[in-house]
Amino acid sequence: MAEQHPKPILSRLNLTRVVGQVPKAKLAEWLNAPASTRKATLVSDVIARISSSELALRWFFSDFRKETALSGPDIETLLGITKTERLRWTKDGRLPVSHLIEVSKYGKTLEVPQYDALGALKAHDKVAEWREEHAREARKARAGSAAKAAESRQRNRAMREKTREAIRQRVASWAATGDIRLARTMELAMWTMWANRWAKERSLLADRARKPERRYEHIHAEMELWKLKHQAVAILARSGFATLSAYVPENPHRFRFDLCPLHLDIFREERRGGLYRTANEFFFDNMDEIMDCHGCVVNVNEHYYSLYFLEVRADGIKDTFSFHVPYPIGNGFLPDFASLPQVHHEHDEAWEGFRFGRSLFDDEKILFPESDVRKRMCELMRLLDA
Question: Which 8-state DSSP code applies to residue 69?
């Protein structure tokens, strides 16, 4: 029976390198050549034989399966496939792996597959079939995803409509007092709460963003939401339905300082002596002395960490809304801080939301879209500020 000619795709392989991976002694034994024959000659003779005979080709790659194993890039070149396709077909077992090798990358040890060359040659005629099969599965998956997306949109629309109806009933209960301005004030306070949560959400998204443009987009949206919140707080404070208090923490002021040469030497000498303290710890432990020092420069931002506390409530209405505004921001549009009664908060330091609230739960992002929050707040502020 006549032997078939080797497949034309063999020309895509660097056969000199692949065959050269087999030790010289094994090549000589396979060719029945003298052991003294130069390796370059042996490699050339092997290539000539496997290039002219399909049987010899299969025999050689079967005998030296591990030595002639191909790397990922070799397989991609040989079969004309992408890296994604290679990984997909490796995972489902269609591309036979000869063995794994360990390589160090990014400080980790990774196991990298080396492919059976003969198996890869056999797989060449099946690539088109595999691609078509994957395309069918992808189309089927897209159709299924589209159906699920349509169901989700319909379900979300129903949930939003149910939420809007609940809000309408809540606003109607406020309006039942007969004071439309009170109802609008309470509604503005409610939407301000959601704006506050959206601002926190945008802050978290900015921290998680990998691309700079996405990060700046979230930061910009966060700043816009904080600005909207503060505009609303200013209107709420003038509404007649809000009370303002001052929250002053144990250390309300922020200090920025440059130590004089003498105090800087003392600080450095302490650290060299084994007393490790941060510059801030050194400053607060010696604050009176440093404040009186003519060489040290100390700038004090008074009440930098203090907060305005605004609470919206009305007789006959069980709902209440409360907000914190940093003193450096609220000082520009809220009453004199010193004239306000102080409020004391018992809070859990582990809960970050104590001062500025929490971010959004997943379902809340659907029920209270950011665009709806912004739109309704602007409408109410226009009505209340008229």
Answer: P
The one-letter code for the residue type at 203 is: S
| Bridging pattern class, strands 317-326 and 307-314 | antiparallel
Query: For the segment 109-144, what is each residue's pLDDT rounded down to a tens digit?
Result: 889 999 998 888 888 889 999 999 999 999 999 998
What would the two tokens of residue 200 be?
Answer: 């926190």
Average pLDDT on 17-23 reads 90
Per-residue confidence (pLDDT) for residue 219, from 0 to 100: 97
> Mean pLDDT across the chain, nearest whole number?
90
**What tokens does 93 get?**
């077992």
How far is C-alpha 121 from the chain's CA centre? 42
Distance in angstroms (rounded) separating the CA atoms of residues 115 and 96:
6
CB contact set of 114 (below 8 Å; sequence gap of 6+): 66, 69, 70, 71, 97, 98, 99, 100, 101
Strand residues in 77-133 grouped as ranges (E): 97-105, 108-115
What's residue 5's pLDDT? Answer: 47
Sort residue 312 into left (φ over 0), alpha (ψ -120 to 50) or beta. Answer: beta
The amino acid at residue 285 is D
Please state the pTM of the whole predicted model.
0.66
Helices (H) and strands (E) in the chain, counts: 17, 7
Angle 21-26-28 (CA atoms, 0-180°, nearest 5)?
110
